[in-house]
TrEMBL record:
Molecular function as annotated in GO: catalytic activity
Protein's recorded name: Nitrilase
Family: Belongs to the carbon-nitrogen hydrolase superfamily. Nitrilase family.
Top-level taxon of the source organism: Bacteria
UniProt feature coiled coil, ranges: none
SUPFAM superfamilies reported in the protein's UniProt record: Carbon-nitrogen hydrolase
InterPro entries: C-N_Hydrolase, C-N_Hydrolase_sf, Nitrilases_CHs
Lineage start: Bacteria, Pseudomonadati, Pseudomonadota, Alphaproteobacteria, Rhodobacterales
Pfam families cross-referenced by the UniProt entry: CN_hydrolase (PF00795)
Residues in CN hydrolase domain copies: 3-270
Length: 308
């Protein structure tokens, strides 16, 4: 089976979830018109990845303006499910595509960096919450647990996602390989030169197709009172992209592209997965369960457990 897949490298309309969702719709429809059956969009696209700001945090203290910045971020996050996920499901249904997209999810008083999965027939399939926010991300995002580590059986293949530097967690990768992931989606905010090498390694390791996409966005997209460490020149690039599609032997099918919004489309031959596993199946003939094993706790964790 062959399918066409797209990675869509665009930026948010920062702190405006509804406008961002409509921008997503425009680009998804354009990718669909080129034959895409799967579209993958960046980490934290709805409503923003707040690159370069510190939310007023100091060791032992927080500034009042940082609390206001968090309030704006909190107010622009989305409920899952909710009106914004309904609209994204409608976009997928109209465009006849499967979608993987990064959002900021609001749950109670906490925000999560979350990836949502949609199909054209069923709408919202589920979500993955980032297990380990990186560095300063831990100030503004909560930690996911093992209950949102899905790999979905879809008509185009087994679909899952690992977010940004989660991809450097070997046991998480192994858990996804164990679930038989074929379409490995890696939304990210890492636009460094080394990221593509990591994506190529993961594709070779897991013998899967890897779809990674990062935002392209400049300072001009953000509000006037947004002061990133990179500088306040409107033309300053806060994220430069680097989206890429890789096959199960680690060969690049499309990208990486930097310095512009872009949609990359590649035809992927699902039989290449079996061709790749001929000589390396990390959870099959190339594993040693007599020596190594991995236990994954996929039960949800709650801070308060009521007793009747």
């Amino acid at each position: 089976m062959k399918i066409k897949a797209a990675v869509i490298q665009i930026g948010s309309v920062p702190f405006d979830a509804s406008a961002t969702v409509e921008k997503v719709g425009e680009h998804v429809r354009a990718a669909s018109a080129q034959g895409a059956e799967l579209v993958v969009l960046p980490e934290a696209l709805v409503s923003a990845y707040p690159k370069g700001v510190d939310f007023g945090a100091r060791v032992g203290g927080r500034l009042p303006e940082g609390r206001d910045a968090f309030l704006r971020y909190f107010d622009s996050a989305i409920d899952v499910p909710g009106t914004h996920t309904d609209r994204l499901a409608e976009i997928c249904r109209e465009a006849r595509v499967h979608m993987v997209i990064g959002v900021i999810e609001r749950d109670g008083g906490t925000l999560y960096c979350t990836v949502l999965f949609f199909s054209p027939e069923e709408g919202l399939l589920g979500k993955h919450r980032k297990l380990m926010p990186t560095a300063m991300e831990r100030l503004i995002w909560g930690f996911g647990d093992g209950s949102t580590l899905p790999v979905f059986e879809t008509e185009i293949g087994r679909l899952g996602s690992v977010i940004c530097w989660e991809n450097y967690m070997p046991m998480l990768r192994m858990a996804m390989y164990g679930k038989g992931i074929q379409l490995y989606c890696a939304p990210t905010a890492d636009d460094s030169d080394g990221w593509t090498a990591s994506m190529r390694h993961i594709a070779r390791e897991g013998r899967c197709f890897v779809f990674s996409t990062c935002q392209y966005i400049t300072r001009a997209a953000f509000p006037a009172d947004y002061i990133p460490i990179q500088g306040n020149d409107p033309e300053t690039v806060l994220m430069r992209g680097g989206s890429v599609i890789v096959n199960p032997l680690g060969e690049i099918l499309a990208g990486p592209v930097y310095g512009e919004e872009a949609t990359l489309i590649a035809e992927v031959d699902m039989d290449d997965i079996a061709r790749g596993k001929y000589d390396f199946d990390v959870v099959g003939h190339y594993s040693r369960p007599d020596i190594f094993s991995l236990i994954v706790d996929e039960e949800p964790k709650f801070p308060v457990i009521g007793r009747e």
